[in-house]
Design brief:
alpha+beta, 5-stranded antiparallel beta sheet, 32% helix, elongated
């Protein structure tokens, strides 16, 4: 197989995976297909046999393919780790160079003349009897790149802010707002959530203390948004996006993240019915092509569209009209 040729079947395989819902059943579909439609599990027992594999050959073939992609995955892991280490090293070096370049602040003061120290007629050479005062500086803030955010589940595809963390997928956001340890009851919390704003506060003896407040950068669906309290830990706010797009910030005025550095892969659970239909059609076309039969665009309208299922080669009764057309 040519390099990259396997990617041609990604859409069809994605449709099957979405239909069965998990990897284990996906593998059962693949190996079941090999069992039903090929000689993969047939053993060569006699010299005259023309179909099948010698004992142990099929298993060795599967292991060989698995190890090939496992090796590629380990190489990808090593590459990402080295890139992250190199980026962290460069950031640390840049921070150290910046700190050295700043250096201490030096002030020069004239030395007063006293009775025991006669006034000199010649000027003191520069740097003589200088008083130096080092101005205290804040330690440099730790680097906070998107790579660091991606390693934390609470800020995956999001960020860590001063008073909360946030993460997102294609349709929803999740905010975690830390609360004091003594906040253990829902009545100690006040959450005002609108389609374009949010206000989170805790109730204390002298009044409310606001933990988070501001306007959203995009609108949310309040009916699909909820919040809950993890006693003594945080307020968890789940927001349902009004539109399907990636957010670069939660509140207006905040520093945006670089959405080009986040994971933009969509969960299969977020694929809508229309996209399901497209994946089903691609899967059907793929099976038809394997069997040398006409594909959907060659068959015309087909009752299959109303089934909402991914067709399998053993379910030909689902496609009565298509079967008749393809076998004519």
């Amino acid at each position: 197989m040519e390099p990259g040729a396997a990617e041609l079947y990604d859409q069809a395989l994605l449709g099957i995976l979405q239909h069965v819902g998990n990897v284990q059943d996906f593998l059962r579909v693949l190996f079941g297909f090999l069992y039903r439609k090929t000689d993969f599990y047939r053993l060569l027992r006699h010299p005259s046999d023309r179909m099948g594999f010698p004992p142990g050959a099929a298993q060795a073939l599967v292991l060989q393919v698995f190890r090939t992609f496992d090796h590629m995955a380990r190489q990808d892991d090593d590459k990402r780790r080295k890139e992250l280490e190199e980026k962290t090293r460069r950031e640390d070096e840049a921070a150290a160079e910046q700190e050295l370049a700043a250096g201490p602040t030096v002030h020069t003061d004239a030395v007063p003349a006293g009775p025991e120290q006669p006034v000199r007629e010649e000027a003191e050479p520069p740097g003589a009897d200088m008083g130096s005062v080092e101005v205290p500086r804040e330690p440099p803030a730790p680097p906070k790149g998107q790579e660091q955010f991606q390693r934390n589940p609470d800020s995956y595809n999001g960020a860590v802010r001063e008073n909360y963390t946030w993460s997102q997928d294609y349709t929803d956001l999740e905010l975690k707002v830390p609360v004091p340890e003594h906040v253990v009851k829902g009545r100690q919390v006040s959450v005002a959530l609108g389609s374009s704003s949010i206000r989170v506060a805790v109730l204390e003896e002298n009044g409310e203390r606001v933990l988070m407040e501001g306007k959203f950068t995009h609108k949310v669906n309040t009916e699909g948004s909820v919040w809950s309290l993890e006693p003594g830990k945080c307020i968890l706010v789940s927001l349902n996006k009004a539109g399907e797009y990636w957010w670069s910030a939660v509140l207006e005025g905040e520093e945006p993240i670089d959405i080009d550095q986040i994971n933009k892969e969509r969960s299969m659970a977020t694929v809508d019915e229309e996209e399901h239909a497209v994946l089903d059609r691609l899967t059907f076309d793929y099976h038809q092509k394997l069997q040398g039969k006409p594909q959907s665009h060659e068959l015309g309208p087909c009752p299959r569209a109303s089934t909402g299922r991914t067709p399998r080669t053993s379910e030909r009764e689902v496609l009565p009209s298509c079967r008749g057309s393809s076998e004519a």
